[in-house]
């Protein structure tokens, strides 16, 4: 068997034979599979493109809200924003506490954090509050959210939140 490997004619036959086998395999198996995968990716992109355009339109509308509403021109203020949204969602001013931090600058980004505790709230009112707040202010994020059930009733909760606003 070792004598076959020493013979030069063996390599003149085996190398073209392996190259032909690779070419036939690539042409019959690999390329059609790649074409099908490409067609699926194009179809997925076409479908996703409509969703992406819709999301961008919604986000641009939310971002333009700040410029179009005179109340929102100027710098973001936790006290004003939380007071406005808590009143709209049935949270009395005496029912929550808010501690806002100072503006922190990291490189080119400026952020401001705040801690909020809502003493007693129903879950539906809480979700409306959070939803409307985050929908109106896209640069506002909730870092932590803790809900604790109170013994006052089946739908009584204490909520503790930590916000971060990026300017």
Write the layout of secondary structure elements.
Layout: H1 2-6, H2 8-68, H3 78-88, E1 96-106, E2 109-121, H4 123-136, E3 140-149, E4 157-166
Antiparallel strand pairs: 1-2, 2-4, 3-4
Structural notes for this entry:
- It is a single chain.
- This protein has 167 residues and is of the alpha+beta class.
- 54% of the residues lie in helices and 26% in strands.
- It has four helices and four strands, in the order αααββαββ.
- The protein has helices at 2-6, 8-68, 78-88, 123-136, and strands at residues 96-106, 109-121, 140-149, 157-166.
- The protein has a four-stranded antiparallel sheet with strand order 1-2-4-3.
- A hairpin with a 2-residue loop joins β1 (96-106) and β2.
- The radius of gyration is 31 Å and the shape is elongated.
- The model has no long low-confidence stretch (mean pLDDT 84).
Please tag this protein with its features:
single chain; 167 residues; alpha+beta; four-stranded antiparallel sheet; 4 helices
* Percent helix range: 40-55%
Placed side by side, the strands forming the largest sheet appear as 1-2-4-3
Q: Structural class, please?
A: alpha+beta
Overall strand count: 4
Rg over CA atoms: 31 Å
Q: Which consecutive residue ranges, at least 5 long each, have pLDDT under 50?
A: none
The average pLDDT value, as a whole number, equals 84
Element-level helix/strand string: HHHEEHEE
Largest sheet: 4 strands, antiparallel
Distance from N terminus to C terminus (CA atoms, Å) equals 75 Å
């Amino acid at each position: 068997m070792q004598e076959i490997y020493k013979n030069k004619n063996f390599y003149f036959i085996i190398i073209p034979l392996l190259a032909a086998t690779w070419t036939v395999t690539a042409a019959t198996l690999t390329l059609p599979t790649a074409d099908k995968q490409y067609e699926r990716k194009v179809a997925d992109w076409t479908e996703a493109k409509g969703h992406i355009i819709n999301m961008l339109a919604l986000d641009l509308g939310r971002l333009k809200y700040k410029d179009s509403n005179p109340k929102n021109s100027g710098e973001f203020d936790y006290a004003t924003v939380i007071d406005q949204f808590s009143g709209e969602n049935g949270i009395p001013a005496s029912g929550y506490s808010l501690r806002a931090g100072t503006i922190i600058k990291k490189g080119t980004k400026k952020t401001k954090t705040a801690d909020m505790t809502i003493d007693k709230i129903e879950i539906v009112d809480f979700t409306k509050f959070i939803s409307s707040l985050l929908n109106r202010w896209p640069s506002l994020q909730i870092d932590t959210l803790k809900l604790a059930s109170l013994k006052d009733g089946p739908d009584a909760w204490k909520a503790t939140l930590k916000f971060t606003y990026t300017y």
